[in-house]
Specification:
single chain, mainly beta, Jelly Rolls, 3-stranded antiparallel beta sheet, 13 strands
């Protein structure tokens, strides 16, 4: 695999998510509808390897998140908890510039962790996480997690993340979802 042309793990099942696969993921639904009218771009792919199952085993996946925005929000992944909530995960940045949005399940506290080449980002257990491409090229990263972690996309699909990452002043800013929506559609 050429490290400068990372796009998938050879012979691994690959998941492809287009904009139409992400209803509700973006806070600004008007911008989402307008973006869909303009087309249905590929937002991200994930190639996963599950070499062994059982206690002590690890799985890993290569994610490729395209650059782009829906309104002021950067392209992002659906985001999830692990089905086994205690499972942690490690992300390794390979190419591009982005962030992990982390949200603690118990407290609701959110934070952004940089995801850049040659850096490792740690996702603790009991934490919802979503990858966001804040750069101008593909964001490529490796995720490594326990074989028994599983993925729970339903919990975040029901209520979504409390925070959003938007472009403001040429940079990426973490904002409260409700405040962001109010700023888009202020009441007279």
């Amino acid at each position: 695999m050429d490290s400068w042309n990372l796009s998938a793990i050879e012979n691994a099942p690959s998941l492809r998510r287009h904009l139409s696969d992400l209803p509700g993921a973006f806070a600004d639904q008007r911008a989402y509808a307008a973006a869909l009218k303009a087309g249905d771009p590929l937002v991200y792919t994930v190639s996963a390897i599950e070499p062994a199952s059982g206690e002590g085993q690890l799985h890993y996946a290569l994610g490729v998140l395209m650059p782009g925005k829906v309104g002021a929000e950067f392209f992002l992944t659906r985001g999830h908890f692990h089905a086994w909530r205690a499972a942690a995960e490690v992300y390794v940045g390979l190419r591009g510039e982005g962030s992990l949005l982390l949200e603690d399940e118990q407290t609701g506290a959110s934070r952004l962790v940089p995801l850049v080449p040659n850096q490792v980002a740690y996702v603790p257990g009991h934490t919802a996480h979503r990858t966001i491409n804040t750069g101008r090229e593909r964001l490529v990263y490796l995720g490594i997690y326990p074989a028994g972690a599983g993925h729970d996309y339903g919990a975040m699909a029901e209520r979504n993340f409390r925070q959003v990452v938007v472009e403001q002043g040429g940079g990426a800013v973490l904002m409260d979802r409700v405040s962001f929506l109010k700023s888009l559609h202020p009441k007279p």
